[in-house]
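Now for one record.
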Amino acid sequence: MSPSTTPIRRTLHTTARAFLALPAGLVAVVLTLTGQPGRAARLRARLAGGEGWTGRRVLGRAVLGLPLDVAAFVLVGYALFNSVRNFGYPLWYLDTDYHQAWGGPTMAGVWTVHGLGWLLCLVVLLHWPVRWLAGGQRALDRRLTSHPGRFRLRRGEPGHDGHLDRDGDGVACERRPTGHEPCRHA
């Protein structure tokens, strides 16, 4: 994803990838176990990006990433369900007594309060917890497909964050030097 994309588009892209990691991972495991590791590797590479996926790495990713993938799937599924429920409030609750609901006594007031309240929850839900889970998924993917010493993130790449760049040179996740040896950059 290019650095010029809007924050909303970047959040939606990250959320979609986090949500699809579980079903795509399960399909990749089935493909690997049925003797189609090449297709499984292509599926994993399409979702996670990068190269270096093999049948064994796909299986390892499925096992190691299961807690992250399940949490992301449940969280985004909850957000989707409640988005339909709150933004479509008049469709679901028009025949009920909404006069005592938040924002009542009119349906317009109730819909506004529920829609704006859920929008605020959605922003918080997708901005922090889902982004953290997606970052963990990306780190695991990168760790499984990278060769030693290639686990470096440059400023502007997805997953780069300032707190990971110890010396402020724009390269994150570099190995610590041993002894008095200076950091080497690729």
Observations:
- The radius of gyration is 21 Å.
- The first helix runs from residue 7 to 33.
- The CA atoms of residues 102 and 110 lie 6 Å apart.
